[in-house]
Amino acid sequence: MSAAQTRAEPVIEVDGIVTRFGTQVVHDGVSFSIGRGELVALIGGSGTGKSVLLREMIGLHRPSAGRVQLLGTDVWGSTDEELTAMRRRFGMMFQDGAMFSSLDVAANVATPIREHARVPADLLQPLVDLRLSLAGLSPDVGGKMPSELSGGMRKRAAIARALALEPEVLFLDEPTSGLDPITARAFDHLLQFLCRDLGITVLIVTHDLDTLLTIAERIIVLGNGKVVADGSIDDVTAVDDPWIRAYFSVRSMLGHKDAAVKTDGGQREGGRHGA
Length: 275
Hints:
Elements: H1 3-8, E1 10-21, E2 24-35, E3 39-44, H2 50-57, E4 65-70, E5 73-74, H3 80-87, E6 90-93, H4 105-116, H5 121-134, H6 151-162, E7 169-173, H7 181-196, E8 201-205, H8 209-214, E9 218-223, E10 226-231, H9 233-237, H10 242-262, H11 267-274
Helix pairs in contact: 4-5, 4-6, 5-6
């Protein structure tokens, strides 16, 4: 099978999802599919149900109607055994990291391995160290408690745990929230590495415009209960939608600012970085 065929293989299929909370309709027929090896960002205004949709895709919240197929398994129409097997094949990083505060980092990473894989005791620590390494952390971080880590290191530790079972798909909810710009961009490059070099399909719920500009190969925009745009950043910004215009107008302002910096003999740029 060619690389193009492999990437085209759908691993996530969302079909006609409807989500209601009482009389409020959050999703009203949301549909899209994501191919193997894609790095996709899911965006939309407040209240468009991005995180809710993510939870529906991994089996944590049942939609009112519609179907989700993840890695060939019907998330809401399969047996417990089928769902358990499917859950071993994806990783999830929640917005706050959701680390066990009473366990050190190594024990956090080891937990999914202990629960779902039969690994000899003497191989567990090397596996944990490898996952930490993939997330850009040194083995000595494994002995620290989550409370001892910086925000960026906690995010990486959460990624290491999400990678524990060598997932085919990785879901991330606002992974760069709360990070400074330099740390956030380093985290973006980590996600790019996981997708490009390890072949992991990555779906990110994000508000981070820089993430979209830096690494997103495809952007899905939710609005008014539906998918209002789906494609490259150029495809999305060409859609005549009020929220999209307002959101990406920031991109234009940043572009003008960067142009001004470049024409100011370098002095202004140095002052900005020194602030």
